[in-house]
Amino acid sequence: MFPLVLTQSANVQVLPLAIVQFQGQHTMDVPLTMAAVLLSAIPLLLAYIFGGRYLRRGLLAGFGK
After folding, report:
1. Which of 3, 30, 44, 47 could pair with 14 in a Cys bridge, judged by C-beta atoms 3.0 to 4.6 Å apart?
2. Which value, to the nearest 10 degrees, does the dihedral of the CA atoms of residues 58, 62, 64, 65 take?
3. Could you give the 3-state DSSP secondary structure of residue 24?
4. Angle at which helices 15-23 and 30-61 pack, to 10 degrees?
């Protein structure tokens, strides 16, 4: 509800809000919605795959002292 109140313009919507509005008012195309969710998750998964070791290294850097 918070992003819906703060972003009135369609150009600056957050991704979950855009996916909800993408579904339609009375109908829901499940395969198309799942494709949109999968495509929106790909950048996060890639960031974790390529940056995960740096994240773990940074979290463990101060642990042994």
Report:
1. 3
2. 160
3. coil
4. 170
Q: What is the pLDDT of residues 24-53, one digit of tens each?
A: 766 778 888 888 889 989 999 999 999 999
Contact at 8 Å (CB) between 50 and 39? no
> CA geometry: angle at 25 spanning 14 and 38, to 5°?
45
Residues 6+ apart with CB under 8 A from 3: 13, 14, 16, 17
The residue behind tokens 């960031």 is: 47
Name every residue whose Cβ is closer than 8 Å to that of residue 4 and which is 6 or more positions away in sequence.
17
pTM of the model: 0.59
Query: Please, are residues 18 and 39 in contact by the beta-carbon 8 Å criterion?
Result: no
